[in-house]
Amino acid sequence: MNNLIASTAVKARELTPEEIKEIEHEKTHYPYAQAVGLEALKIVQKYQGWVSDESLLAVSEYLDVPPDELEGVATFFNMIFRRPVGKNVILLCDSVACWMLGCDSLNEHFKKTLGIDYGETTEDDMFTLIPVPCLGACDKAPVMMIGRETYYNLTTEKIDEIIADYKAKG
Amino acid sequence: MDKPLTKNIETGRAPFDFKQYAAAGGYESVRKVIKMEPGDVVNMVKDAGLGGRGGAGFNTGLKWSFVPAPDGGPRYLVINGDEMEPGTFKDRLLIENDPHLLIEGMITTCYALQAQTGYIFLRGEYTVCEELLLQAISEAYDNGMLGKNVAGKKGFDLDIYLHTSAGRYICGEETALLNALEGKRANPRAKPPFPQVSGLWGRPTVVNNVETICNIPGIVANGVEWYQNLGTGDFVGTRISGVSGRVKNPGCWEVPVGITFRELLEDYAGGMQDGYELKAFLPGGGSTDFLMPEHLDLPMDPGAVQKAGSRLGTSLIMVLDDKTCPIGCIRNLIKFFAHESCGWCTPCRDGLPWVEHILNKMEEGKGSMKDIDILDEMTRYMGPGNTFCALAPGAAEPLQSGLKYFMDEFKAHIEHGCSYN
Predict the structure, then answer these.
(1) Which residues does B312 contact at the CB level (< 8 Å), separation at least 6?
(2) Do A99 and B126 make contact, defined as CB atoms within 8 angstroms?
(3) Residues of B with CB below 8 A from A138's CB?
(4) Which of B48, B182, B202, B360 is most buried, judging by how many CB atoms fall within 10 Å of its CB?
C-alpha cells in the first residue's frame, strides 16, 4: 500500500529552475493555470525521462491542481509515461495501414534483435518499445517514431540501421 | 485548376517562410477582410458552401453563425489538428508544407468571429509541424499579422498559441478537445450547449479542422463564385483526398470535390500494386463503413457516399486488398477504438473490448455462430444515440458493413480460423 500516491510516504520533489522556467512560459498562454497541466507534465518528462509520483506531486503543488485530477490527465495520455522508460522510446505504429504493410513482423523483429516486446525495456535501459495508434503517415507505412524523429517506409534492414545509429550514439 | 490548399506546396523544397509566403500572394485575405464587416465574412463563407473537413462535413459558415453577438468577454477559435483517424494524413501534409496558410486562415477567421485568441490543438507526435508552426507564429508577430492592431487595423488584436497534445484520438472530438485544452481529462461534454455558445472556459468558441481553415484565405481573397467553380459539376471547392494500402503510389492530393473514387484510386494513386486486387475500401478513415468495388464510380461527395451506406469522413481512402484478411482488418480497427475510448459511456468502454475479444477468438478458430449474432447486436448497442460522442458509433461502422459484405469470411473464420498469412 505504501506505493500508492495518496500515501504520505511520497512527497513532491523540487522542480528544477529549467522546468519552472518552461512551465512559467506556458502559463502565459492560458488564463488559468490548470490548462498548463499536460504541458507541465511533458516538460517534466522531457527532463526526467518519465513522470514519477514525486514529479506529479510537484507539478500538482506548483499549479495548485489536485493530484487526482492531474493523475487523471497523466494516465489518460499515451505519451505521458508514468513508469520509467529507456533512454530511447520506440513508438511502433500498429494501426490499420501499418498492420496491412507488416508492423507485426517488425514487432517480431524487435523481439528478436532487442529482446523486448511491447511495454518492455532493454536491460541496458537504452530502448523501450511501445505500440502507438495511427501516426498519420499511412502513405509511408509502416512507420515508427524514436523520440521526436519519425521513420517511414520501414523494413527490418532499415530498422537495424536506425537502431545501430542509436547504439553508436550511446 | 487553381489549388487554394496546395498552391505553395512543392516536394523537395522547404516550406515558405513569411517573406516568401507573402511574396506568393499570402496574407491577402487578411488585408481584404479588415475592410469588411465581420458578419459579411461569415455570410460569405456560408454562401461558399465550404463543409467542415474534419469528417462531419457541416457547413462552416453556418457553424460560425451560431456564435452569439459579442458581449465584451473573450471568444475563441480553436484549430483541431489532433489528426489521428486511422488512415488519415492530410493535416500533416498541409502544416508540414505550408504552415503560414493555416495561420493566415486563423487570422481571417478570428476577424470574422471577433475572437481575440486562437489556439492550435496539435497532435504531440507531429513534431515537425510543431516546430514549423512555432516559427510561423513568431514570424507573423514580427510582421504585424499578430498582436495588437493586426495588419494595421485599429482594435483588431489577436494572439495565437500552439498547444501540443500527447496522443489520444478522443481529443479530436471537439468537446473532449476543449476539456483537454482546459487541462482536464478529455471526456466529451454533453451537447447542448454547443461550443459556439459555451465552449472553452464557458465562452463562445468555434472548433474547426486544419484543412477547413486552410480554405478560408482562398475563399475570402477570391470570392464565393471562384470557390464554387473549383469543384466538378455541382460540387464546390477542392479538398485533400488520399489513398493508403497496397496501391502503386500512396499519398494525398488536392482534388476537385466530386471526382470519383475510381479517379482517385487510378489516376492519382496509380491503381493497385501488381498481384493485388481491390477487395473493398474504407472511404474516409477507420470509422466509416466499407464500400465495395461496385461503388468506385460514386463521386467523392458526402451526400453520394451516404446514399451508398457509408460516410465520406476525412476522404482519405484505405484499400483492402484480396490478400489481406478483412476480419483481421476489422479487428485492428476495433482494437484501436477500444484503446482510444475515453471510458465514459458503457457501450463504448465495455462494448469495444468485448467485440475485440470475439474477433480474436474468431481469428484463432474458436468462434461460434452465436458470436455473429452478438456482433450484430453490438453494432446497434454501440450505435448512434447511446453515447455522448461519435467514437463508438464510428467504430461500429466498419464492423456492421463487414458483417454485411464479408459474412462468408466470418463463417470461414468460425469454422477453421484465419487462413490468410
Answers:
(1) B57, B283, B284, B288, B300, B301, B302, B305, B306
(2) no
(3) 86-89, 244, 250, 316, 318
(4) B48
- Give A170's pLDDT tier (boundaries 50, 70, 90): confident
* Cβ-Cβ contacts under 8 Å, B328 against chain A: 99
- Under 8 Å between Cβ of B334 and B83: no
Contacts 24+ apart (CB under 8 A), A6-11: A6/A67, A10/A53, A10/A54, A10/A57, A11/A54, A11/A57
Question: For residue range B124-147, what is the model confidence (pLDDT) as tens digits?
Answer: 999 999 999 999 999 999 999 999
Q: How far apart are CA B47 and CA B45, in angstroms?
A: 5
**CATH architecture classification, B326-416:** Up-down Bundle (1.20)
Beginning with the edge strand found earlier in the chain, give each strand of the sheet holding B238-244 in spatial order: B251-256, B238-244, B316-321, B278-282
CA dihedral B110, B112, B114, B115 (to 10 degrees): -20
Instruction: Tell whether A157 and A112 lie within a shared domain.
Output: yes
* Model pLDDT, residue A2: 46
In this structure, which amino acid lies at residue B211? E
Domain boundary among A52, A84, A116: A84
From the options 3.40.50.920, 3.10.20.600, 3.30.70.3400, 3.40.50.300, give the CATH code of B238-321. 3.10.20.600
Contact assignment for A136 to B91 by CB distance below 8 Å: yes
Task: For B201-231, write each residue's pLDDT tens digit.
Answer: 999 999 999 999 999 999 999 999 999 999 8
Q: pLDDT tens across B150-162, in order?
A: 999 999 999 999 9
Cα–Cα distance between B418 and B131 in angstroms, integer? 44
- The three cell numbers of residue B417 are 480460423
Q: Quick one: cell of B46? A: 456560408
pTM summary value: 0.96
Indicate if the pLDDT at residue A134 is higher than 80. Answer: yes
Q: Do A56 and A98 sit in the same domain of this protein?
A: no
Task: List the single residue in A34, A38, A100 with the smallest CB-CB distance to B324.
Answer: A100
Question: Could you tell me if A97 lies within 8 Å of chain B, comparing CB atoms?
Answer: yes
**Which residues from chain A sit within 8 angstroms of residue B86, using beta carbons?**
95-97, 133-134, 138
Same domain, A76 and A117: no
Is the pLDDT at A8 greater than 80? The verdict is no
CATH 3.40.630.30 fits B18-228, yes or no: no
- Provide the domain limits for residue A161: 88-169
Mean pLDDT of B23-47: 97
The last residue of one of the domains, among A63, A84, A105, is A84
pLDDT over 50 at A1, yes or no: no
Is the pLDDT confidence value at B179 over 80?
A: yes
Q: Which of B127, B244, B420 to mutate to test the interface with A (most CBs of A within 10 A)?
A: B244
Q: Where are the alpha helices (DSSP H) in chain A?
A: 17-27, 37-48, 53-63, 67-74, 96-100, 103-114, 156-169
Q: Are residues A70 and A37 in the same domain?
A: yes
Q: What is the per-residue pLDDT for B124?
A: 95
Partner residue facing A96 (CB), from B201, B252, B286: B286
Q: What one-character DSSP code corresponds to residue B248? A: S
CATH of the domain at A103: 3.40.30.10
Q: pLDDT by residue (tens digit) across B256-293?
A: 999 999 999 999 999 999 999 999 999 999 999 999 99
